[in-house]
Structure formats: structure tokens, C-alpha cells
Amino acid sequence: MSSEDSWLKNLTRQKGGFWEDLYWYDLQLERRLPQARTMLQQLVLSLPPCGGKQVLDLCAGTGRVSAAVLAAYPTAKVTLIDASTQRLTVARQRLEPQKIVTHWSSLHTYAQARDEEELDVENQYHFLFRATWRALRPGGHVVFADHVGQLGMFQQLQALKRAGFEDVDSSWRVDDSFVAGGRKPLA
């Protein structure tokens, strides 16, 4: 057993814990990120009507967002993408009675630079948002919940605008947690 397996790792406030363990992640999320539950509620409340619409849950994890969307809009067609096949397995179990599509993929495959250079965090977000913009139909929305970590909320809003989104704004923010989004122009 290495020191990485010690329970003391769980006691460290900054960057501590076993985030890579999917069951620990689900168990600890609301304790480690106190605004997580409210942020999820605010995300769903910020969505345009989703009944019968396609909804992409990017970085879906264990399916918490998809479960909340389907509770609010049972006729939504949800697709989950995550880099962890294990987390998607938990999401499938959580959402089992629903018809969902899951897909394993690393985000870097969607947000790669053409010349494979190392990108700073701001440009990584720009490429991710640009890939999301390309995937949306005209008039489609991107709405997401995040906490200030790698890139602040204002910089993320600017990255959305640079990627081509309009109606970019934040609908909710408390401390370092926020919900934001934008819309792909109709034309």
C-alpha cells in the first residue's frame, strides 16, 4: 500500500481526496463542493425547454446532471459523454429505466489544436467551446455548471464569445460555483 492509498489523503482540504474513484467521487461531491446540489438545480432551471429535444451531457460523470434533466424533462433524449467508462457505467445504472446513449471519449479528441501544440488553459476552453459550437444546430444552447478552478467564470464567458456563441451570460453564481451558457446564432 502506497502513501497515495492512505486515508490521510482524504483529510487534505486543497486537492485532497480520491477523485479518481467513482464511488468516492459520488459520495463526496456535495461535501467537497458545498454548492454542488444548488448548482445542479440552477443548471436545470436555466435550461430552455428540453421536452423531446436532444441534450448532450458532456463530462457526464456518473449521470447526476442527466438524471436531473430527465426528472424535469422526461421526454428529453440524453446522450452522455465522459472520459471514464467506469463513471458511464454508474450513469447507466442510475438512469437504467431511461433510454440514453453513452459514449466514452477524452475531451482532447474534441478540442485538439491542429498543430498538436501545448495549449494554455484559456485556449483549451476555447477549443472545447468551439467544438461544442460546431456540434450544435443553429439556435442550440450550451449551458454548463462549473466552479472556478482552472479558468475563472469571466474568462470562460469570454471563451464562449470567442468560439462564436451569442447571448452569453451567467444565470447563477455563489462563491466560486456558477452556471453559464450561450446560444449558437440562428444564421
Automatic annotation (TrEMBL):
InterPro entries: Methyltransf_25 (IPR041698), SAM-dependent_MTases_sf (IPR029063). It comes from the Eukaryota. Residues 55-107 form the Methyltransferase domain. CDD domains: AdoMet_MTases. It holds the Pfam family Methyltransf_25. This is Methyltransferase domain-containing protein.
